[in-house]
Every structure is written in C-alpha cells, then in structure tokens.
Amino acid sequence: MGFHTKPTTFIGHVKVKVTDLQRAIKFYRDILGFKILEQTATTVELTTDGKTSFLSLEQPDNVIPKQGRTTGLYHFAILLPEKSDLANIVVHLVENGIRFGSSDHLVSEALYLHDPDGNEIEIYIDRDPSKWTWSGEEVEMTIDPLNFERLLTSVTPTKWRGMPENTVMGHIHLHVAEIEKTEEFFVKGLGFDVVNRFRGQALFLSSNKYHHHIGVNVWNGVGAPKPPKNSVGLVYYTLVYADEEARQQVIENLEKLGYQVTEDNYQLTTEDPSGNVIVLTV
C-alpha cells in the first residue's frame, strides 16, 4: 500500500517520557512484546525486527507525572500487519489482566490502552483501502463498537508471540491549543492534506491518501498550555520525507510561515504552534 514507505511522508519514530524506566521496559517488552535494541541508564530503544527502532522511552531527570489539560501526546498508534495479530493480542491482554478500550473506525479496527505512566497507545489494523469511503477529499471515519466476536475468529493456535517483525508506527494523535494555525502549519508547512474534519474540534491529516498519519484535537481545551519539559508524555516524533529535496522544501515553507527549524546533534527540529516537537528526517 505504501502508506508507511517513501515517497509517502510518514511517522518514523516516537519518543516518550516515563517516570520509571525499568517498569516501563517490563510493560513494553513483556506485555506488548517489543525487543530491546539499545539501552542506557535513562533511555531504551525498542524494536520489532532487531534492526530498527520506531519507539523509544526516556526517564528524564526530576521527571514528574503526566499533566492534565495540556497540549502534547493524545496517543501514538502501532499498526499491526494482519487481522490475526490484533485478534491474538486481544486474547493476550485479557489473559494478562490489561484493561483496554476499542473502536471500529471504518478504515481500521483499534484497541486503546495506557502504559504504566498514562501514555496512551493505540494498537490497530487497517481495513483494505478499497473499503474506505471517500467523499471528495475527505475519508469517512467514525467511532463504532468493535465486533469482538468477528475479530476473534482470526485468533491463531500460536497466539501472541510479540510484536510482528513488520509492525510500524501507523500514526500519532496530538492535543493542540487551537485548530486554524495548526492546520496552516501541517498543510502549508509540512505538506500534509486534511482528510477529515471532526466537528470543528479535530483534524486528521495524511500523505498519499492514507486515512491519517497525524491527528490533532482541542479536546484538552482551546488555549491549552504546553506541559512541563520534565513531565511524562511526548519528547518528539519524526517525519520521514522522500528525499533531501523534499525536506528542504518543507524547511523553506516553515520559515516563510515564521517557524524556526533548528539543527542539534545532526537533527533538524521544529515545533508546531502548540509546542509539539518534530524531527524532520529523510
């Protein structure tokens, strides 16, 4: 489908903060089934294929718990390759006493849960794009109950054996302070298309006609403040562009709009109008 490979612009990596790294590792490794790629005293890189990392955790100095009613992470979303994978992890979560919510979004079927620090995680599968309904430039999405009876017919005898090798970071959803400037930033700056508008409170944005690579909402309140830098939540996420030319065009677009792009440790970084940090990569 090409929604998470070049030339589509997609989420490459998400880094989040936790209060207790060892407790978090136990959850992400033993419950969700990630493998450890690299680890230090304060950080860990998680992998599914043993080669690359699309999720990392950090325990900052003087870390404080997740703060409510701020901008920042709503959830990051892990995209599984097969329906049987979603069915198998349902059984696995139930067997391990992990509470989770669920939804059928028409374009996808999803589970929602929290890590021990309250960082929200979506785990989902996509329906075939041929089954997505488009009205002009907008794709139809909703929040319907997930049909577990139908889903669980896909459980396999091997059950859950950890995150499949070709799992990817499907999308990220953010709390923002307002909608208008946010839309300008993502569309005119970063080059995404709006593919769904939800009641004036949320936008869903994508590249290459995906249902969404990025969601933004004002559900924490218009004018919500940035969270403290040392609080649990999002550190940054990366956007992967097709090539250096595409990235340079985005940098020019952002600077014309008045946004800064800074270089630090060979990373090019910017912030959306609500202070969410984005690393621009190729």
UniProtKB/TrEMBL annotation:
Keyword tags: Metal-binding
Family annotation (Pfam families): Glyoxalase
Molecular functions (GO terms): lactoylglutathione lyase activity; metal ion binding
Domain VOC residues, every copy: 10-126, 168-282
Stated name of the protein: VOC family protein
Organism: Ureibacillus endophyticus
